[in-house]
Design goal:
The structure is a homohexamer. Chain A is an alpha+beta fold. Chain A has a single domain, classed as GHMP Kinase, N-terminal domain (Ribosomal Protein S5, domain 2). Chain A has a 5-stranded mixed beta sheet. In chain A, helix 3 packs across helix 5 and helix 5 packs parallel to helix 7. The longest helix of chain A is centred in the last third of the chain and has 27 residues. The radius of gyration of chain A is 18 Å and the shape is globular. In chain A, 53% of the residues are buried. Chains D and E meet through strand 3 and strand 5 of D and strand 3 and strand 5 of E. Strand 9 of chain A pairs antiparallel with strand 9 of chain B.
Chain lengths: 251, 251, 251, 251, 251, 251
């Protein structure tokens, strides 16, 4: 059994998050925006709003609003420059997968009827990538979403808060047989199993994605990772709440 | 608590798979191929082989072989014709996500060193889509993979079997609060939660993807779905084995 | 003069077709579908229907319906895997040329007014390619078209049969100076001249495409090829009729 | 039977070509170039040369040279501006089909071994389109080819003339039941049958493409069209020869 | 100080233009067209007209008409064949920059209200490129524009001449420290500074683009270049006027 | 004549810059990076380095290194979300023009031989766009370049400083007949003339781009704009120097 007091390379315990902070209003022309700093990972999360819904909703007569996400890694976000998507002419599979995940996560806590016939765009642009960019994107996007919704309410474009609960995400994994919370890039590269957990403030799952490449994982390992993840999510909910409230009154 | 004897629209019990069968050698120019019929879902799974590895493996000096997958829905696979990917000029996000999942699943049971410096291409083309196409693709692809590897061994292109265990996939979900195995298209559209389980014959997970759109799911529901999935996978392993052995001797 | 009793590598005489059979309803969600097996060539032909016409017809005020075709070679249809069109980002010239030919051939036997303001999509996907894929596509597509039209009549979406006569296609060629019917891949690669004939059941041409690469062909050779082609088409018309009628009553 | 003395709208007899002329060296940086004027149709045909062969030739070890063609309609070539290919992002099917035809026609009269390991690019850009642009392209391209080959010989880059015979092309068709040579745009739009004939100076076919949309054509009509075409080709061969020789000595 | 009597490689003085001529109606289906020959540079300039305006004008409620330009180098316009834009799938940056410049230049002399709700397309296709293709394009396009507008007036599609003044363009540069007018390709490649001047007949600037790659340029050099450019533009205005009037009466 | 004491909407005088500041190391994985804040315009400028040169340099045997730039507006940088380039599949013309300008500006102050056989990538991503994004990109990019070069020197990858002088850029324009320095978005939209000046610390021009849409500009107005621009550039040089030195010693 793994020793819970064993320190990781950066000094963290198995169940410890990296330091996390938020810079609000990084992109003032968006409805809501934050720069989330999560260890060495940094992501700009911005929420914009358009007064229309996707064509398929109109065609199928679906009521209410929509939320969609786009995710991109800026070329200087990695050690060794990453060519832009536009250079290759198309979005790579990983980015598409992540932006679909962000979109689903955000929609899972939204009352789309209360949003009215409008679309929220959640843009996540990675400024620095040191592991956990999808978790940082979802966690930061929720704070930007709260800011955007507050503005819609203040401007009386909506009258009911469409946000039903909060949502955050974190990665867990198995590294050398040991379950760890919040893997950085080095740990993630070496991990046998990588799992992303998206969870609400009420302790329910929005999404669970566990992947073993080469090495598979057992029922017991799954349960250990779920336990670590659950505790990480609670801590993230607190940090999101503090960030959102900060400066709200005097702003 | 849900009544385990309650029948589903097509007469199945909560933990029952749809009828599954395999037509082998549907594409004789591939190294291995099957048409998997899973209820009304039909997928051509074919494995081809090229005597080279991707450029990134050469550049990074990674030894052994590789396996990659491509997934596509043929335009007549849906009620209401689905335009081809090439018409839109790019692969949609869902297809990219699925083909990455198929690729990881196949690689998770392959000893890539024993494969040598070659690439296996797993092509999955959906002829009829009635839910569970990704589960059918992975389950069928493994049978095609076994056939392909058998041929490589017979032709003495490899000397050691690179397949370490078998792999299969199945969907589970929560519909009206009840956990169900193997959702068809109607059930999948109405389900609150949708989960895909990719598992080996030794009962370990390769992949676990659970998604709740709008409705989230609890720890208890997760455990119920995992239990149904585990039993479904065991049954699929048996069907794969029978399909592979069929006609092998007299062929 | 060439000896008419001389056997070809697979035992056929100069004017003999390869064995041909049809599997109906291969894609049950299409309006009509067959898998045509023509020697080692196999093509899925499926006809779908949309209740609208192309924009140019509306803009130009053209009455009646339309039929269009798409042709694709599945990656495992060739010895040596063929990359998908989507990988290159665009359809190659040969595929475009073939799908335009299939479209023209189908339209040449359709009374577009009787079809009403709808579009028929003819999809031809090659599962195995051993020469003559365009002939197999047209010949199979006509059977799928008959099935689709029968269903439209049965469902009372149309009241008059828009099919005016039957259409089939076959290749002929000159190989080592000898005119041959229905070339397989080996023969086609070595042939001096390659000609495709698309003809109706009334013995009239829809399309005639004869090509000599490097070697040109004389008036006399043209006439020999036309004679072989005509006889092949008559035989194909019979096979199409039998396939269409099969199981019709008791279905 | 049709009256052979009946005049067409522009005063021509059934078997008469439109006026044809050539402006040589329209694009002086090409190895050979002409502007062919064929009635109101005008095409720039230019031949360039690169000292390498396509990759597939190297990979397959094919000896000798290659010739390939590109065809494009300039946006001001039609009544009503035609958007450029680049605006749509890809070449339309018709243009691809035509450039493949031009390429095959040119290769059919070339001794590729005598050309050596180089590639000839035949570019055909339509300045004005009034029907018969593919015939004009092939007929003009051959004159540009002769000029280019003469320059290669003069510069002692090759020592043997790779041109084995001349090639030209013309359209024929059936309009109101009457076979006509060289259809202009108006006639072509109204014609029941449209046939392109590419033929060498020795009276052999390179290519024969006959198409009936809606209306099919009989054996007898085919023979009438072939006879008209043959006579048109002989006249074109003379015009090409005169154009090539013009100014050659004193240039 | 530079010797103003020093001859350039082709015999020109520092402030002398290359020989310039115009062939009118090169593309008779356009509303107006010229082939401008400017030394060894040749460009087809054609103006077409569509009876609609861009979508953004409708959406923003902008009144009047629009003019837009497209620029392309034909593959045989350079020594060493230049691949077509369509081969690369997109327009290169240089071409986009030039066509935006042509569009702005043409619009700067147009009264868009007098044009009415229509769009003029200015197409510039380079047949031979020996430096100064953007200057030749703008200078030639203006003549084509005058021809097109004359036709619109004659056809009573517009009643007021929307052309307010004439516009022309020329390049100037610094080569070995000496200011030169109208650089050919050889001079342009060697020049330290390259400047394009677009100017009206009233001596005002539409556009000024001066670029120093590696070597920068001083205030004094700027003034010398401006002086040479101004004189070149006056001469071009005269040549445009003569070309436009030529044959106007008897045509 | 215009009154030099007249205040602009934001209180600035005609020749006054907006407030400008720099946040260094915004993207720590780049070699050098700043966030430049210029009024309400914000741009991330980052410089990365690859140990190779473009293919054309190798092919043409050009010695030394290269610098290239990419420019993009993040979707939340504008009031009203701007769709990403990748959504449209290609870079728009304006962005291409700007990134070519940034590249030329940076190269104009680099000694490419001293750089050695490596490529510097200058990435400019606009976080907030309120006019002058190209000026901010060039001005910020130079500071990031200095930081990157300092690191290359410190790491002894180069031994000689390849930066020969500093470079900055600013916009000037004519608004209601009055010459103004540094236009914000509102002023830029209403301006009759827009000019960008890129200039070195030695007072020489790298680039001069003046554009009048609809309204042209006179020689006198040109001289007024040049004078304003020159003074703005001197002030920018000072700000760049301060920003670069800040924290350098204690870092």
């Amino acid at each position: 059994m793994s020793d819970s007091t064993l320190r990781r390379p950066d000094g963290r315990l198995a169940g410890e998050l990296r330091p996390i902070s938020f810079v609000k209003n990084i992109a003032p022309y968006a409805l809501g925006s934050v720069l989330i700093r999560w260890g060495n990972t940094q992501v700009i999360c911005a929420v914009s709003c358009e007064e229309s819904v996707p064509r398929w909703m109109k065609e199928q007569g679906v009521q209410g609003g929509w939320a969609t996400a786009e995710y991109s890694m800026l070329p200087y976000s990695t050690l060794g420059r990453k060519p832009r998507d536009i250079t290759r002419g198309r979005l790579d599979g990983r980015s598409q997968e992540i932006q679909r995940l962000i979109g689903r996560s955000i929609r899972s806590v939204l009352n789309r009827e209360a949003l009215g016939a409008r679309t929220l765009y959640v843009d996540c642009d990675v400024v620095q990538a040191d592991g956990g960019t999808r978790a940082a994107s979802i966690t930061g996007a929720f704070v930007a979403l709260k800011m955007a919704v507050r503005k819609l309410l203040d401007e009386e474009r909506i009258w009911e808060d469409p946000i039903q609960k909060s949502v955050a995400a974190v990665s867990v994994g198995i590294l050398k047989g040991r379950a760890l919370l919040d893997l950085d890039y080095q740990e993630d590269s070496a991990a046998e199993v990588d799992m992303n957990i998206v969870m609400t403030s009420s302790g329910e799952f929005c999404e669970l994605q566990g992947t073993g490449e080469q090495v598979t994982f057992s029922e017991k390992e799954l349960q250990e990772m779920l336990e670590l993840g659950r505790r990480g999510i609670y801590r993230l909910n607190e940090l999101q709440e503090v960030a959102f409230l900060e400066g709200e009154k005097g702003d």
